[in-house]
Amino acid sequence: MSQRAKIAVERWTPESRFAVVAAALALAALAIGPEAFSANAVDKLTTLFIYVILAVMWNALVGFCGLVSIGQQAFFGLGAYAAVRLANSGFGVYPGLFVAAALVGLISLPLSVIMLRLKGGEFAIGMWVVAELAHLFVNLDPLIRGETGTSLIELDAFAPDARRALTYWCALAAMACMLALVFALLRSPLGAAIQAIRDNEEAAESIGVRVERAKRLVFMLAAFGAALAGALWVATALTFQPKAYFSPLWTAYMIFMALVGGLGAFEGAILGAVVFFLIEAWFGAAGVWYLVGLGATALVFALAFPRGLWGWVEERTALRLLPIGYRLLGADAREAARPPGAG
Amino acid sequence: MILINQIVQGVLLGGYYALIAIGLAFMFSVMRIINLAHGSLAVLSAFALFALADRYGVSPFLGLAIVAPAMGLVGWGLQRTVLERSARGGLLVPVLSTFGLSIIIDNLLFQGFGADTRSLAPYIGDLSFDSWSLTDDIAIGKLAALTMATAIALIGALHLFLMRTQIGRAIRATAEDPDTVGLVGVNPRLVNAVAAAIAMATVSIAGAFLAMRATFDPYAGALQLIFAFEATIIGGAGSLWGTLIGGIVLGVAQSLGALVSPQGFFIAGHFAFFAVLFARLYLTDLGAVLRRALIGAKPA
C-alpha cells in the first residue's frame, strides 16, 4: 500500500519532447521546399500535405470522437466550390482558400444540430446523403455548369512557378496549423472528454462531460479541415468538376489512411497519410486493381488490425512521439492500471 | 392530371425502393449492422443475371433461380468471414469493413465488365415497355406493377416466415438477445448466417429489378445503397412493412421533384428523407417535453 505513493502520471517523455521539437523543425525546414526541390517534388509534397490534413481530420472525427462519417467529401467538395466562388467574385485566390474553409465550417454548425442526433451507421450514411445533396446543389450553380465544372482561372494571374510555391506554402501552413490545433485540442481537458464520449457516451455524460458541445466542436473542426483540404486541392488541380470532388472515394482514402496508420493515434494518421501517398505513387497507375487493393487493405485492417501500423509500433516499443494521453508510472503502475478482477 | 400521374408513377417507383430496402432493413433489425456493401451486392447480382442472359441466353427470371441461391451463399459466407467479426469489434468496425467491401466489389465489377452501362430490358421482351392505360394521361407499366407486387409478396412472405416458422422465431429471438438464445438451445451464429443468406437472396431479387427497369454500371451500387437506406429510415429503421411506406414516400417525393427540374428528382428525395428524420427527432423531443411538463405539473 505504501508503494502507491510512488505512482506518478507522465505526459511527456524525453523521446516525445525530442519528437515534437524535431517535428516543428522539420515543418520549418519544409518551408524552403520551393527553393530547394524540383517542381515535380513540390507538387508531390503539396499533395502529401493535403492527405495529412484529410487523415488527421478524419482520425479526429472517427478515431477520437467515434463518429464514423462516409460523407466528409461533402465538406471537401464544398470547400473547393467556395474557393472557386470566392475567386470568381474577385476575392484574392489564396486568402480565399482559408475563407472558403471557414465558411464551410460555419455551414457545418446548423448541419451538426441535425446530423449528430443520428447514431452509428445511421450517422455514417446520413452524412453520405448530405454529400449527395451538397453535390446536387453545387451542380445547380450556373458558374459550375453542372458536371462540366469550371476552373480556378484566377490562378492564371500568377506565373506557374510562383503559383506552385504559393500553393505549397499554403498547404504547408494549413497542415502545420491543423496538426498543432488537433494536438493541442486532444491534450486539453476537452480532448479527454472527446475520447470519453467515444468509449461510452452515456458514461461520459453521467460524469459531467458536455457531450453535445464536444461532438459539435469536433464535427465542425473536421468539416473545416476537409473544406480546407478541398480548397487546397482545387488550387493544385486547377479544375473543379463536382463529380470528382464529391466522390465517396475521398472518404475511402481517409478511411484507408486513418485505419492503416492507426485509428485513434495521433501519430497514426500522419503515418497513414505517408503510407497512402507512397502506395499511390507506386501502384496508382494500376488503376482499378489499385482501388481493389485499397478496399481490401482497409477491410483487413478493420477486421484484424484495428489499431493499425502505429498500434503495432506502440505495442512493441511503448514509443509515444506525440503524446496526447496519460501514463501511470511507478513500480505498481501496472497493478494500478489493471482493472479490478482482471487477475 | 400530370400531377396524379406523377404520384401514381412515384408510388410504383416506391415498390422498387421497398424491394432494395428489404435486405438492408432485415440485416439491420436482426444483426444491428448497416451493410454499406448492400448496393454493390445488388449490382453484383444484376451483373450475374446479365452475364447469364448475355452469354447463355438465360432469361432473367430463370436466372434468378440460380443467382438468388448463389447470393444466399454469398450472404452466408459474408456473415461468417466479415460481418460476424466486424460486429464483435463495436460500432465502428462494421461501417469501415463493409465500406471497404463495397470498394472491392465495385472495382472488381469494373475490372470484369468495363465501364459500359448495361440493362436486362432487352432480355424480357414486351414486359419492359408494356403498360395498361387507365386514362389518357395515366398508364401503369407492367414491369412497375410487377415490381410493386413482388415487393409486397416478398415482405408478406418474410413476415409470415418470421412469425410462423421455427427458424423465423429463432431469428427474432436472436435479434432480441443473441446471448440469451444460446441458453435455450439456439445457435446464434447459425441463425445470423441464415438471416444474412435470406437478406442477400432478397438483394438478388432487387438487383434483378434494378437491371430490368433501368440501366446499371459497376459503380451504381452507391446510389442504390442510399435509396435503400432512405426508404429504411423513412419507414422506421428495421421494420419490413415500413420499407414499403418509406419506399413509396421516397418515390413520390422524387417523381414530384422531377416536375420542377431534372435534378429535382434526387433533391426532393433527399429532402423527404431529411424532413422525415427531422420531424421524427423533434416530434419525439416535443413529446418528451410535453410529458415532462404534464408530470411536472402534477402536485408532488
State the total count of DSSP E strands of chain B.
Answer: 2
Share of helix of chain B, binned: over 70%
Q: Which two protein chains have the largest interface (Cβ within 8 Å of the partner's Cβ), and how many residues from each?
A: A-B, 41 and 42 residues
Structural class of chain A: mainly alpha
Main sheet properties of chain A = 2 strands, antiparallel
Tell me what you see in this structure.
- The complex is a heterodimer of chains A (343) and B (300).
- Chain A is mainly alpha-helical and 343 residues long.
- Chain A is 72% helix and 3% strand.
- Chain A is globular and about 65 Å long.
- Mean pLDDT of chain A is 82; it is low at 331-343.
- Chain B is mainly alpha-helical and 300 residues long.
- Chain B has a two-stranded antiparallel ribbon.
- In chain B, a hairpin with a 5-residue loop joins strand 1 (131-133) and strand 2.
- Classes of the chains: A mainly alpha (343), B mainly alpha (300).
- Chains A and B meet through helix 6, helix 12 and helix 14 of A and helix 3, helix 4, helix 9 and helix 11 of B.
Q: Top keywords for this entry?
A:
heterodimer, A: 343 residues, mainly alpha, ABC transporter involved in vitamin B12 uptake, BtuC, two-stranded antiparallel ribbon, globular, disordered C terminus, B: 300 residues, 11 helices, 2 strands, 78% helix
